[in-house]
Amino acid sequence: MNKKELTEILNMVANGKMTVDDAMLRIKTKPYEDLGFAKVDTHRSIRQGMAEVIYGAGKTKEQILQICTAILDSGESAVLITRMNEQAAAYVSKHIELEYDEVSKIGIAGTLPQTEKVGKIVVATGGTSDIPIAEEAARTAEFYGNNVIRLYDVGVSGMHRIMDNLDVISTARVIIAAAGMEGALASVIGGMADCPVIAVPTSIGYGASFGGLAALLSMLNSCASGVSVVNIDNGFGAGYLASMINRI
Amino acid sequence: MNKKELTEILNMVANGKMTVDDAMLRIKTKPYEDLGFAKVDTHRSIRQGMAEVIYGAGKTKEQILQICTAILDSGESAVLITRMNEQAAAYVSKHIELEYDEVSKIGIAGTLPQTEKVGKIVVATGGTSDIPIAEEAARTAEFYGNNVIRLYDVGVSGMHRIMDNLDVISTARVIIAAAGMEGALASVIGGMADCPVIAVPTSIGYGASFGGLAALLSMLNSCASGVSVVNIDNGFGAGYLASMINRI
Amino acid sequence: MNKKELTEILNMVANGKMTVDDAMLRIKTKPYEDLGFAKVDTHRSIRQGMAEVIYGAGKTKEQILQICTAILDSGESAVLITRMNEQAAAYVSKHIELEYDEVSKIGIAGTLPQTEKVGKIVVATGGTSDIPIAEEAARTAEFYGNNVIRLYDVGVSGMHRIMDNLDVISTARVIIAAAGMEGALASVIGGMADCPVIAVPTSIGYGASFGGLAALLSMLNSCASGVSVVNIDNGFGAGYLASMINRI
Amino acid sequence: MNKKELTEILNMVANGKMTVDDAMLRIKTKPYEDLGFAKVDTHRSIRQGMAEVIYGAGKTKEQILQICTAILDSGESAVLITRMNEQAAAYVSKHIELEYDEVSKIGIAGTLPQTEKVGKIVVATGGTSDIPIAEEAARTAEFYGNNVIRLYDVGVSGMHRIMDNLDVISTARVIIAAAGMEGALASVIGGMADCPVIAVPTSIGYGASFGGLAALLSMLNSCASGVSVVNIDNGFGAGYLASMINRI
Amino acid sequence: MNKKELTEILNMVANGKMTVDDAMLRIKTKPYEDLGFAKVDTHRSIRQGMAEVIYGAGKTKEQILQICTAILDSGESAVLITRMNEQAAAYVSKHIELEYDEVSKIGIAGTLPQTEKVGKIVVATGGTSDIPIAEEAARTAEFYGNNVIRLYDVGVSGMHRIMDNLDVISTARVIIAAAGMEGALASVIGGMADCPVIAVPTSIGYGASFGGLAALLSMLNSCASGVSVVNIDNGFGAGYLASMINRI
Amino acid sequence: MNKKELTEILNMVANGKMTVDDAMLRIKTKPYEDLGFAKVDTHRSIRQGMAEVIYGAGKTKEQILQICTAILDSGESAVLITRMNEQAAAYVSKHIELEYDEVSKIGIAGTLPQTEKVGKIVVATGGTSDIPIAEEAARTAEFYGNNVIRLYDVGVSGMHRIMDNLDVISTARVIIAAAGMEGALASVIGGMADCPVIAVPTSIGYGASFGGLAALLSMLNSCASGVSVVNIDNGFGAGYLASMINRI
Amino acid sequence: MNKKELTEILNMVANGKMTVDDAMLRIKTKPYEDLGFAKVDTHRSIRQGMAEVIYGAGKTKEQILQICTAILDSGESAVLITRMNEQAAAYVSKHIELEYDEVSKIGIAGTLPQTEKVGKIVVATGGTSDIPIAEEAARTAEFYGNNVIRLYDVGVSGMHRIMDNLDVISTARVIIAAAGMEGALASVIGGMADCPVIAVPTSIGYGASFGGLAALLSMLNSCASGVSVVNIDNGFGAGYLASMINRI
Amino acid sequence: MNKKELTEILNMVANGKMTVDDAMLRIKTKPYEDLGFAKVDTHRSIRQGMAEVIYGAGKTKEQILQICTAILDSGESAVLITRMNEQAAAYVSKHIELEYDEVSKIGIAGTLPQTEKVGKIVVATGGTSDIPIAEEAARTAEFYGNNVIRLYDVGVSGMHRIMDNLDVISTARVIIAAAGMEGALASVIGGMADCPVIAVPTSIGYGASFGGLAALLSMLNSCASGVSVVNIDNGFGAGYLASMINRI
Predict the structure, then answer these.
(1) Could you say which of C115, D59, E92, F85 has the lowest number of CB atoms within 10 Å?
(2) Neighbours of G246 (CB within 10 A)
(3) Which residues have a Cβ under 8 Å from the Cβ of D179 and sit 6 or more positions away?
(4) Cβ(B93)–Cβ(B81) below 8 Å
């Protein structure tokens, strides 16, 4: 159930088109569904305006299916699943409708309503290897109804690649900069853009990259203003936040 | 020179009210003023919509004054100085107009134009000791023309303090959550709010807080969506970004 | 041999119902059994009131069986084995009675005496993926004769889930809070409960969770009083300590 | 106001000895006092059974006095202040009654009610330099009405010192083990005692002790069961928790 | 060629029993054999009194065989190979005489001369899982002609196990203490013994043991004097040094 | 296209031997080829004098082939591929000419022009296990037309091995020192040589080597002047830089 | 004594212009002067072509003077002292000729011979606060006879400042890039330049810069080729190496 | 009381020259003196052959004096105090005989018996700044009756300084190698010596030395055999252990 539906119910009550008892029945389901191993947040779209998401890592394929079903049954039209492996995708798609992308490991169960995409979120990467994380961000943002422009492999070792795309950067409403290794991309874009930049350190690299720590520290210390950081490899978090900002 | 001024000049040229040469003269100052020890970015309000800021730490009082003067001379009406110590404030205020706040160590040189404050940015802290950082954020946001609501000492060890302020949280456009120690405030607020939350880990704590590292890691790993993180004690960065988002 | 049995023997000696020599024979087995690769602590239930436990990781299935047998032979009725893999469980159960749980990797060899369960230990988790660690804690506590209430998937990103269970929390004698990622659950519960909270950081998470380090530091820095911490993923330690406190 | 007082009021209402209105007046103060810079938790002794405590570090002497006064005014007879420096103690004692201990930096404002001390909490240290932290723990426990036995300088480099005190250890209800350097004391005591052991790593040491990190890690990895850990130098936390367990 | 052989040759020259040219021929092989991928130190037993050792990890089985052969050809009667996997052992033993131990992964190529074992080196472990590292130490010490006494599974969680063996500890010339987790064994033994203690942190443990880091830091910070530390899991290094000290 | 070719074209234009239009056609390809997943830098040899290199890790074999082809098509005669696995090598070599080395995982697609090798770059290693990284450096340097001398297994535990090669060291123009474990080789060579030393920490080691961190820190703190450091295991970076310096 | 002087002596001997005994007298001073607390390397300019340097930190002013005198007495015309505090400078300048710079803390004792400066070393900084380290590098390079161009405050948050100086960067023979915070300057310059770039992380920053660690890791992971790194704040090392490369 | 004295008493009893009661009186003082804040180990010279030592850091001057007196009163002729500041030395020397060295911060209270110094312990340092730590080691070793040879400032950046002293190294019975920065000295000496090498990392250095961590890791990873490590700056520990080994 989302905010709009709730408002409609309340209006019908106010207008005498629905009895209080009927409204109670429709509204006062518990704000979460208790599956034992999980308490599924079925009121999140009311409370936070964006539906519950399933973090697929560390859940069995049966658990993912159960949670999907619970969310769809609560009235959501679609549900996003992140870090979903191929086995889980194959299993879930046997039981319910599922669109799955192997690069980003993102699955979408149910049917996305056709709405007009708004704004302009730019998703940039330093290199080719950062693309899976960037796609997680991009597809999350698209799931929530945003226009996304991809700008891949524009790392600072070849500055002309990013200089060539200054117009894309200067017209964005939000930019997601995903980079591993030294993560300088976030600072460079942050210095050029006049919109919020969400930096996503990736675990791409070796040696003293220490699994993304180098990029993380680099981004946290960015000398450019307007840059904030999410967890290493957290493409979903970046996409979700970008949508929040874009749709503000 | 800001965007609006530039547009006016260009319009006058377009309308024949100003010759190209005169426009050239007024526009084509170099985009930065080279003071030797610093290259002051005098075009930043054109390029990024928000004027250059002086990071006071590690600069002598003479350097701060020189940079202030250069920026004000370039046409800005006011300039923000962060991490300004009291000696520097006393020195600068002898030469130019300066408003200085001892708690946040923020100075404002020149005169802030009276503009209507927009939106609603909530600045929350876990404890009393986080207030200096929170004030740096709040005053930065106010400098850039935003309404700010302060919500101090609402840490998670006494949940009723934050529960009591749910309405403030649920009506915010952006929230800044500054907390040291375990930094759980960001996650708890992130779970309640439906707007972007900017988490500022502070260096408040002792022992295994490791100068703010515990709060930083905690915030980066936040299980709540819509939370992003800036550097430890980076109140300015949070306030600047909050303004960007609020004014989007 | 446990404390009660020892007291009985000594009383019989005091009452002349047993000769000193017979008592000597029954008591003065060595306080540990030396198996070469291990010195099994057969007097621990006398010394510490709780029987020896086998940490299964890093031991061969043959070693586990040998130690089990030595403990059971020393007079214990049951022995707890933690971190026991399925191969070891299959092997040991061929030779002696064994109850094995795949989720928590806990095995119980021998027969648990039917005693009345006492007190109320609450075991809470932040998410679904923390359940294996929580179950290790819960089953350990049950092994030592405690009542356990499970409260799973009540992480702080959806505060209403925990608010809904305030009564469970406020009536507990001890609470175990197992959480990965930012581990804020321990602080939030610690701020609500008036009993000891044992925090168990789990290695659930990715990126800057650094294998549970983020949750560990977060919990150590908890702003709530009454919270103490055990090693990352140490469900057994939490369950054992909870039992000690509950049965004090 | 504490639990006992609240129960008395409610009983008087039930017995007709107090009107509902009078009861309302006495009870329904807000659960916290908002001082602007702090939200003082005046209901904590009702909610958690132990009164609010003031963490003195990072607060001005004026702030400490204000919070003290707010708590005493809310009906508590005494309030504990930790990490209080000598300047603050001198200042506060000019305005209200204060007992101050220089070693532990603990102050007690108001008057402790004379109650019978219960149980037996043992506070042990590895060396002489750990005493300030141990005293913070001991005095906190005494503040909350517990008997405390001090066992100082019994580190493992001279095992006979601790062996000589086995009786003290084996008859304790809770033990606090404070040690810096390698922190082995917690494991050794944990292996001897049959009660909960609260390990407090201290920042005593140099070089690879890294400000208490070595002791912290050592204690978290204790091979003895029944040991849990609080933050480095967190004597207060240990004393508070020990009281909770002892008074369970 | 070892020191004794060299002395004999030089004496024969001094006594006229060998011509200078013949001596030259026998002595003046280069101090190392260059195999391209390795420069085998064939004079080490002259220079340092103990023959070259092969660190098997990261070398192919063919490389190990080649180096073995080079060393044996240079006049050594036997050569020690550490961290030798079973494939390499099977391969080498097809070509030259090899004694291989699966637990410690130690191989001995050639024939150890029958010499009287000297001194008394005690090798102790905290637990059963530390045995492979302890065996690497013990077998290394035996290879170099020392008497070794094994004292396994005497960790501090059951102090009576080590107390029972005080005589073994107090009569040792050198003690090797191998322990993972919190590594307290080294300090406890160091506090009892009056001989050098070589501490070997092992990578046994989980969570905050961080691959042996906790034990390493603990041992470096030992409050007992006479304790020094080698690398995590470096059983060979401990055995080699123990031999050096014992044979001084 | 490289600098020389560009100069020739421009000279032909200057001499009237080529029309401006023809020159434009040949020069003004975009400075990078956009393959979607990658923006291949086809002007790098003009801009930086050394052709684009493909970092093979994290790219599919199809991507590697596509990028190779794009570079070769842009006019380069050969392209270097680092960290290329054997599957990728097999696949690429089916479609284009490829020379592949299994030890260093380096592939060279196309045909290296026969040019005279210049200068003298010495590549030294501490042990046998460092050779793969050293070979990556050596082959990279050879690819760019430098003479390379290999000096393997000259670690400081047998100083005579390096003393024996003082002449090689003292006549080098650049030295690459690759070492794991404690990485002392860089300092020792740095103290002997009078040319730049590029230190490459390797991840060879165990325990407290922490994946090369020990060697990295050691090399960064080198007391010898003239030493600089590249990332752990970054043989390519060392070879590339050595070539830059040698050909200056 | 430097290489040139030695060659002259040897030539005079070869030509019969100097007797072997006289040459012996002039050459065969010991290669170092033993001052007890220090062994001064008086032959370094022969062995490595660049004279001994005094690292002033941690030495008393008397020790610095003694070492200066020993070096000047051995025939050097000037000696460089780094990290010299003002007290030491005042003291030394009373006894011998000394030129001292307060910003870089560099002193030069004796008289620099007037030689023609060669090449072009560019020293760039990210901000104003990095200047002291940059000056240490610049003055070191100048001491060894190199031309130095300073390019200060060109950090990546204002890319136009560096773009404006592309010609300076593209004509350098060596570039030193000193930056704190996220250290992105090294990568950006590395991507533009076709000469070796020496990256100097500085300790400028706060919070998660961890004393320069963030910049250090960032620079080690630079995606640009041709970049190597020296220790945090090691301006001297960068200047020395730059000179070595420039004068190759 | 030391071992020799105890043996004498026992012999007198055996020979009838002393009654059992008198012997009891002289021997059976408690093995430690309890001063409240400290339990002074007065039997350590019996148990471990080397008298109790006072670690001065973190003790007040009054505490040091009290412990000194207790030890001297128990029959020791002299007592070693480490890390004693000048104030404490001045205070103690007013009351009892004290020899104090400012460089090493070592004090010796009482009178050292004139005994013949044995063996040969070499104490080497990498630089001048390591001398205070080295002196702590040297004076400790001398206190326990060992001959000590100092070999200062022989770091690996000038290998000839150490090569010149090969004879000193090759004739030592134990070597202590104290070095900061990269700590390579321990490996280089370890590769040359045929006796145990005790490595002492010092906190000398800056930047990525991280307070001695770089040297510590370097020494733990030493590729030379026979090297073990004590804590950063632990000169006392090294001197004590060296004495133990030398006097074995």
Answers:
(1) C115
(2) 24
(3) D125, D126, D127, D130, D155, D185, D186, D199, D200, D201, D202, D204, D215
(4) no
Cβ burial, residue H36 (10 Å; 0-12/13-18/19+) = exposed
**Residues of chain G above pLDDT 70, percent:** 85
What are the beta bridge partners of residue D29?
none
G207 to B232: CB separation less than 8 angstroms, yes or no? yes
Provide the CA F150 distance to its chain's centre, in angstroms.
15
Which of D32, D167, D217, D225 is the mutation pick for testing C, counting most C CBs within 10 A?
Answer: D225
Dig out the tokens for C126 from the structure.
Answer: 């932040």
Sign for the CA dihedral angle at G199, G204, G205, G211 comes to positive
* CA-based R_g, chain F, Å: 20
Q: What is the ipTM of this complex?
A: 0.88
Whether chain F lies against chain D with 3 or more Cβ pairs closer than 8 A is no
Instruction: Look up residue D100 and give its two tokens.
Output: 């101050």
Full strand arrangement of the beta sheet holding A53-55? A53-55, A78-82, A106-110, A98-101
Is residue H158 within a helix (H) or strand (E), and if so which, with residue range? Answer: none
Quick: pLDDT tens for F109-120: 998 877 788 889
Q: Do A207 and G220 touch (CB under 8 A)?
A: yes
> For residues B161 and B172, what is the distance between their CA atoms, to the nearest angstrom?
17
DSSP E129: T
State how far residue C55 is from chain D, nearest Cα, in angstroms. Answer: 10
Per-residue pLDDT tens for B47-80? Answer: 556 667 899 998 999 999 999 999 998 888 899 9
Chain F CB contacts of A204 under 8 Å are 58
Q: How far apart are CA C187 and CA B183, in angstroms?
A: 10
* Residue H25, Cβ density class (10 Å: 0-12 exposed, 13-18 middle, ≥19 buried): exposed
Q: Is G5 helix (H, G, I), strand (E, B) or coil?
A: helix
Q: Give me F72's structure tokens.
A: 């070769």
d(CA E93, nearest CA chain D) in Å: 40
Contact A152 F37 (CB under 8 A): yes
In tens, the pLDDT along A28-69 reads 445 667 777 777 766 666 555 666 789 999 899 999 999 999
User: Within 13 Å, how many C-alpha atoms sit on residue D76's CB side?
Assistant: 26
Q: A212 to chain C: nearest residue by CA?
A: C207
Most A-contacting residue of B6, B245, B246 (CB-CB within 10 A), to test interface: B245
Q: Which of B225, B230, B243, B247 to mutate to test the interface with A (most CBs of A within 10 A)?
A: B225
User: Considering CB atoms only, which of B220, B232, B241 is closest to A231?
Assistant: B220
| Pairs of residues, one from chain A and one from chain C, whose beta carbons lie less than 8 Å apart | 49
pLDDT of residue C18: 75
Interface of chain F toward chain G, CB-CB under 8 angstroms: 47-50, 53, 173, 192-196, 198, 216, 220-221, 225-232, 236-237, 240-241, 244-245, 248
Residue H163 burial by CB count (10 A; 0-12/13-18/19+): exposed, middle or buried?
Answer: middle
Specify the amino acid at residue E197: V
SS3 (DSSP) at A35: coil
Residue B13 to chain D, least CA–CA distance (Å) = 54
Contacts of C117 by beta carbon, 8 Å cutoff, 6+ apart: C142, C145, C146, C147
Q: How far is H234 from chain F (nearest CA, A)?
A: 19
Does the pLDDT value for residue C234 go beyond 90? yes
The residue with greater pLDDT, G109 or H10, is G109
Q: Mean pLDDT across the stretch G176-195? A: 93
CB within 8 Å: A204 and F63: no
Would you place residue C6 in the very low, low, confident or very high pLDDT band (cuts 50, 70, 90)?
A: low
